[in-house]
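Hi W.,

Here's what went into the run:
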Amino acid sequence: MPTMNLLQAINSALDTAMAEDDKVICFGEDVGVFGGVFRATSHLQEKYGKARCFNTPLVEQGIIGFANGLAAQGSVPVAEIQFADYIFPAFDQIVNETAKFRYRSGDLFNVGGLTIRTPYGGGIAGGLYHSQSPEAYFTHTPGLKVVVPRSPYQAKGLLLAAIRDPDPVLFLEPKRLYRAATGEVPETDYQLPFGEAEIVKEGGDITLVGWGAQMEVIQKAAELAEEQGIACEVIDLRTLLPWDADTVVESVLKTGRLVVSHEAPLTGGFAGEIAATIAERCFLYLESPIRRVTGLDTPFPLVLEKEYLPDHLKILDAIRESVDF
Amino acid sequence: MTRYCHQPSFMTGDEFSMATFALLDPDGALHEGAVEPRLERDHARRMYQAMLATRLLDERMLAAQRQGRLSFYMQSTGEEAAIVGATAALDDADMIMAQYREQGALMYRGFTIDEFMNQLFGNDLDYGKGRQMPVHYGSRKLHYMTISSPLATQIPQATGYAYGQKLAGDGQCTLTFFGEGAASEGDFHAALNMASVHRVPVIFFCRNNGYAISTPAVEQFAADGIAPRAIGYRMHAIRVDGNDALAVFEATRMARRIAVEQNQPVLIEAMSYRLAAHSSSDDPSGYRAKSEEETWRLKDPVLRLRKWLTAKGWWSDDEQASEEERLRRDVLETMKRAEKRPAPPLDTLISDVYADITPALQRQFDDLKRHIRRHPEAYPKGAKTLDLDISSTSSAEGDA
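Here's what came out:
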């Protein structure tokens, strides 16, 4: 099995999908001959032609509007928004159009073929506008699916699933790991399921939940906790919408303790949704308050990025406090 | 290639003042020098009948709204020629992505009065399953995209849809309708630019009816209307008398050829006037003079085409009378049928959010059903679906 980084895995997924189905079309800013600013679409124009892999003008609302129409027509668009920080001009097209297309037409029309790929997250000295994690804006929108891979293996399997899924998918790519994360990735075609969390590591003392780039941080904290004799169960949600509450519930019924971590700000973040659900369903089993370890309620900083980020030490502290409660 | 000059020279845009293409005068006679488009008798009659039927449907449904039978309505009165004339110039399999006031396009393509009514009353036969406000029609078989309220979102979608048609190579194109107000949205500019860059067979059809709710066109843009904007995108454009069905038909017919044969987008601006209110919730007396409306009534597009047809011997006063009577009766009887039909069943609340219902949503729905069983009187439509007898249910638990 070849070793790939996360970008190569994404490129492999796009290549696989485009080879299999003529209707798959990739586009976005700089996506064509250049292969995207991160090179996720490298060589695709060369291989499949300019009609199926091309640059668009610099207009996010246009890219997603175009993609919605193309998907409604029966094509399978994979639209790239260069940074998740720049997805907001397309917010109306995503929230009011993409997400509601099937419902409002009574299933006469749908844009289920659409996948929106976009790099998200901090840790790359990107400041306010190359670092954000906007997932919670979209998890609040019924009709969308929101997917976040943490590794090259997941990236390929989840992206292929997203492209073939009958519903529109927002695919958030952890750009800090684009080249940093490497692993074995099958060259063959495979898919990973939506709505099913992955138990990365079993443990009986406390449950740690996250997704995407934050999983690396959570796993590091879990290792440090192990050294202190605390057995952590680590869960990667993989998809946030729909999210696999049952797996988290089952884990917390066993451990009685929960820490959720994401880079996005605390207030209104997706950890709040998880905490509320677990409080409802596991109330009598909880040994300590559910903890959220997240970014602060500030814009994403630059020089003080390290201080802002929910790193392994902050998670370790939360684990300790939860266990010692 | 860059062309240099060595004295500063500014352009104002006044260079781009565009003429309005017109064939019929308000009396239905050809303007001097105008050439009648090639239009078969049956085709012309189909156009007129759709315009007339739309006019009558609008009149009756506004009255129904005033009677409290309907929550909301939007008339297209005064713009029938622009809408039907454009539709008649398309292939019936071309996609139409409309704004919300284009019921004439559906009428032309054969949407039945029953289909209109089922949507307006949001009953169990509504294709949209009672989810959208009245006039948000859609028809897959008639290639008419379901309407969505946000303005201008359909314009870049039309570019994308038409790009797919170009790749499919089926010789079809997409026409998108929008108002001169919606053309202020960013989506409009995104759509035109992308269509021109990627050579997409799409027709952008602007209904310039003078008003965006109460805002007059002079407060919407400073330039000479919408059509000259196409020049900035290196796109074909034409301005046409929107109350002249023949001119609209001919302009759109030619635009379609440019779109399909040359893979080039075209912008059409139809100059018209919204004779009625913006919607049933609007009252134009607060922002425009009756006298202004009267001058436009004299340019009535339905009457104009009727006069032309009559002069050609393709329509008669007798036919007019019998057609009006038939349509009025049909609308009335159909409305009575549609308003008596039941609401869509309760499970349409959660279907079509996704292709398959998610477990989390199913759980929410099960909770809702349990709640409705406890308080059926409070939710009569849902209780009916669940076969709960509302009248005999005691409200011992109370509604608190």
